[in-house]
Specification:
It is built from no helices and eleven strands.
């Protein structure tokens, strides 16, 4: 069984930075990519950034140029470096292990990010 544990969330002022970490334990079988999603109050969960096993990255338009997703395979950890944070970046950030269309994804428990204006 795979477990994803996020850390690094917190309260930060507008323009500040945070780095989220997602530590994975368990088998990597079927995992194609690791990603970060976020959910703001009253809104649907949305993709923030994703990194494939080959290192290809994808970003939501709203975070391009401000966020960077990376992975350290030796530590089984994925990171999300967030800079120039805005109040609209506030939400619960979830780590995701994408297993494609045929297998259910794995999700972390989420970490709260709050950006004050």
């Amino acid at each position: 069984q795979v477990q994803l544990v996020e850390s690094g969330g917190g309260l930060v002022q507008t323009g500040g930075s945070l780095r989220l970490s997602c530590a994975r334990s368990g088998s990597i079988f079927g995992i194609n990519a690791m990603g970060w999603y976020r959910q703001a109050p009253g809104k649907q969960r949305e993709l923030v950034a994703k990194i494939t096993n080959g290192g290809r990255t994808t970003y939501a338009d709203s975070v391009k140029g401000r966020f960077t997703v990376s992975r350290d395979n030796a530590k089984n950890t994925v990171y999300l470096q967030m800079s120039s944070l805005k109040p609209e970046d506030t939400g619960v950030y979830y780590c995701n292990a994408d297993r494609g269309a045929l297998l259910p994804d794995y999700w972390g428990q989420g970490t709260q990010v709050t950006v004050s204006s």
